[in-house]
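Review the following:
>
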Amino acid sequence: MSKSIVALSGGIGGAKLATGLAQICNSEELVIIANTGDDFEHFGLKVCPDIDTLIYTLAGVNNSEMGWGRDGETWSFMAAMSELGGDTWFNLGDKDLAQNVLRTTQLHSGKSLSEVSEYLAGQLGVSVQIIPMSDETVSTTIETADGMIEFQQYFVRDQCKPVVKDIVFRGIEVARPAPKFLDLLNSDDVAAFVICPSNPYLSIDPMLSLPGVRDGLRNNNAPVIAVSPIVCGDSLKGPTAKIMAELGVPCSATQIAEHYKGLIDGLIIDSSDAALSEDISSMSISVKNVNTVMYSQEDRAALARGVLDFAKQLA
């Protein structure tokens, strides 16, 4: 059996690269570690947006227009909730609701989030391993001028409008990496760790902040490669650029290198940012310039090939 490719993923950018990797890797070789800092409880249900985005995207049943949720979705539940005067700021389609009900039921029966995620992915025909970063609860919270708010309140309810002063991962000190994640960090059978072009502050930092993860990545012999989510000084989707400005850091691929400095061996940046290569190389980080903008399945597969070629070069 070939060595594993382990990708750290959050949000839509992570799911896009994950599908590219899935196109060119054998399913038993690819492992996706999903951010769970975005998870929260809603209507008494355990909602795991990043896990479900990965499952739906890899299964080919994601809603590509909205960028989240299932395709062919219906909204009877939310319509009834609105009639009853309940909260409707976080939309749960009927198909998505079924996924969250089943997840919550299985968790209440004593199964771990890792076990439930594997089951749900399998039910939708996903053979790639999707592993939550932790089976324990870590909650991303945003410090704003008006106080602390939960991530989904910031992201969905408030549409990322509040100014971000700080980002805190509640529960991170006592949480542990999921057992399979920890095994991979300590394994000699990993060909590369790939940090997807996800928001570094909201999607990747929760994973890297788990006890033992940074040390595990540094001590493993496999190369660690990140893909910059910043192209030409802006983020393609989501609040990455806005957050960087509010935290007082320049919005550039160079800053992504700075953020991951000491952890990564290589950074993939978009060809349009090639002029930044020398600055990044000066941080003792190898650089590869390719097209990182993924409009199509072909784009996703091409970027994935670039990542794996880079990993072989750095191994």
In short: The longest strand covers residues 4-9. The longest helix spans residues 297-314. The chain has one domain: 4-314. The two ends are 18 Å apart (CA to CA).
